[in-house]
Specification:
Length: 89
């Protein structure tokens, strides 16, 4: 039972973090010269991931470099947030 409660708490934390996202695309390379191939700009100026639900794992940049896409919580453990990113607040 404790394991189920722990897993439910992790899922709730994930939803909380995801809800903060402004969809600026910065963490996916929108401001870089070599963004993720799955990143697309929407008509309203925000960004979206074409494979969002299955994005975790190996992905490629436009130039073909591979990288590991991870949940934003993992990124926050090891890196300073991007300027104006709501995750840093």
């Amino acid at each position: 039972m404790e394991k189920d409660a722990y897993e439910a708490k992790l899922k709730e934390l994930e939803r909380t973090y995801e809800a903060r996202c402004l969809r600026c695309g910065t963490c996916c390379g929108a401001l870089d010269t070599d963004p993720c191939t799955q990143l697309e700009k929407c008509a309203d100026g925000t960004y979206s991931c074409r494979v969002y639900e299955t994005r975790i794992g190996t992905q490629k940049t436009i130039s073909g470099k591979t990288f590991s896409c991870v949940p934003i919580r993992q990124v926050m453990l090891y890196h300073k947030p991007f300027p104006n990113c709501p995750y840093g607040r």
